[in-house]
Automatic annotation (TrEMBL):
Residues 196-418 form the Glycosyl hydrolase family 4 C-terminal domain. GO terms for molecular function: hydrolase activity, hydrolyzing O-glycosyl compounds; metal ion binding; oxidoreductase activity, acting on the CH-OH group of donors, NAD or NADP as acceptor. InterPro entries: Glyco_hydro_4, Glyco_hydro_4_C, Lactate_DH/Glyco_Ohase_4_C, NAD(P)-bd_dom_sf. Its cofactor is NAD(+). It comes from the Bacteria. This is 6-phospho-alpha-glucosidase. SUPFAM superfamilies: LDH C-terminal domain-like, NAD(P)-binding Rossmann-fold domains. The record marks 111 as: Increases basicity of active site Tyr. It comes from Serratia inhibens. The keyword Transmembrane helix does not apply.
Length: 452
């Protein structure tokens, strides 16, 4: 087992999440000692804006931790013990297209769900594999803790292309839901243990245990009135409390009004009530614009203020995103066998789903990786929904690997947010035009198809 203090690289060092993650690391130094933090990004200009803020956060807690800022993968990953991956291929400019193009066709415009998530996946799979290869070339058996979206598609791509890679795919959405659950129940998040099954952004909580007692019946009563928010909505952290997020948490109510057996992941709203979602989305101002005008602008302004005055305004926070990734890294580092919801190869955990499906279930995180908790068989309704979504995601991965326009079209058509094959084709064709710098093979296949 690797001994501390650790060398940690953050791939996507120019992300607006980076200062919050580093702050999470700093307040947990006694639990997860660090010798060096390395920021790595292919966009050096953006990273250089974020880096001084990160430096300030580190120095407020430690004078001994080395900070390295680089665009050179060898410098970033040589002898690293852990890599946190949070890449956003195409940055917010492409996220905006992912959201607005479907909306032009009356279809859900969302970063990780529906056509937007499929487009994002087409951009991200191969860069993620490239990152894995760089880490394996330069690091010493490092663990990659991957936060890069869309996590389900990225995880499936990695399973196909690099099945032996030391990658643990995680998502903070279930953990954010657990934070809200704990707030509603009036307990600490650490006191809540859940049972859960599904795919990433496509799953259900089946039990919510506090001191061994299932509190899901109590949650049902609360959700019927307020959604998955406290009565005054004051418990949500800033990362998930923008107006669009408040609406997301409230939309759990209609989902459970129809299917009260289990508590759904909030993202199920996009698949089970897409028409209502589209009715309330602004095609000219989407979540990407909200983030660019909010979190990104605030952090960049704070960085400029700090550069000018030496005073760092309060521009970021430590939320579930940062604390969760530190929890997982600690459990990997010290073989703690802590129980977390993560994305793993099924291997029978959900008995009536394919063995090789990348599912999201509770698992014990060990020094050798995750050990999934056995879920057993799931009811037919949920099995059917999951199998359709799984086929959509697997076709999308095959489209990426083969440069296949036909399989991309099949994936878009199969997605529950897309009403018809005509919608699927129109959206995909617009997506190909917008992504010509990222999908050269797919664009060529599309052009060849037209010529035939």
């Amino acid at each position: 087992m690797t001994k501390p203090p650790f060398i940690l690289a953050i791939a996507g060092g120019g992300s607006t999440y980076t200062p919050g993650i580093v702050k999470s690391l700093m307040v947990r130094l006694a639990d997860f000692p660090l010798a060096e933090i390395r920021l790595y990004d292919i966009d050096g200009e953006r990273q250089d804006i974020i880096a001084p803020v990160v430096e300030k956060v580190i120095r407020d807690h430690s004078q001994s931790i080395k900070l390295t800022v680089t665009t050179d993968p060898e410098v970033a990953f040589s002898h690293a013990h852990f890599v946190f991956a949070q890449m956003r291929v195409g940055q917010y400019k492409m996220r905006e297209q992912d959201e607005k193009i479907p909306l032009r066709h009356g279809v859900v415009g969302q970063e990780t769900c529906g056509p937007g998530g499929l487009a994002y996946g087409l951009r991200t799979i191969l860069p993620m594999v490239e990152l894995i290869d760089l880490v394996e070339r330069y690091a010493d058996n490092a663990w990659i803790v991957n936060y890069s979206n869309p996590a389900a598609i990225v995880a499936e791509g990695v399973r196909r292309l690099r099945p032996q890679a030391r990658v643990l795919n995680i998502c903070d959405m279930p953990v954010a839901a657990m934070r809200n659950i704990a707030a509603v129940l009036g307990v600490d998040r650490e006191a809540v243990t859940v049972n859960y099954f599904g795919l990433n952004h496509f799953g259900w909580f089946t039990q919510v245990l506090v001191d061994g007692v299932d509190r899901l019946p109590q949650l049902r009563e609360h959700i019927a009135r307020f959604g998955l928010l406290t009565e005054d909505a004051a418990a949500t952290d800033p990362q998930h409390s923008d107006p669009s997020w408040v609406k997301t948490w409230r939309n759990i109510k209609p989902l459970m009004d129809h299917f009260p057996e289990y508590l759904p992941n909030p993202y199920m709203q996009y698949y089970l009530m897409p028409n209502q979602i589209v009715e309330h989305q602004n095609p000219d101002y989407t979540r990407a614009n909200e983030v660019m005008d909010g979190r990104e602008k605030k952090l960049f302004a704070a960085a400029a203020e700090y550069k000018r005055t030496g005073i760092l305004p309060d521009a970021f926070h430590v939320g579930v995103h940062g604390s969760f990734i530190v929890d997982v890294a600690r459990s990997l580092a010290f073989d703690l066998r802590q129980r977390h919801l993560v994305i793993v190869e099924n291997r029978g955990a959900i008995a009536n789903l394919p063995y090789d499906a990348m599912v999201e279930v509770p698992a014990y995180i060990t020094a050798n990786g995750p050990e999934a908790v056995t879920v057993g068989k799931i009811p037919l309704f949920y099995k059917g929904l999951i199998e359709q979504q799984l086929a959509c995601e697997q076709l999308l991965v095959e489209a990426t690997l083969e440069g296949s326009y036909e399989k991309a079209l099949q994936a878009f058509t199969l997605n529950r947010t897309v009403p018809t094959m005509q919608h699927a084709k129109a959206i995909l064709d617009d997506m190909i035009a917008a992504n010509q710098d990222y999908w050269p093979q797919l664009e060529q296949a599309y052009k060849e198809g037209i010529a035939q």
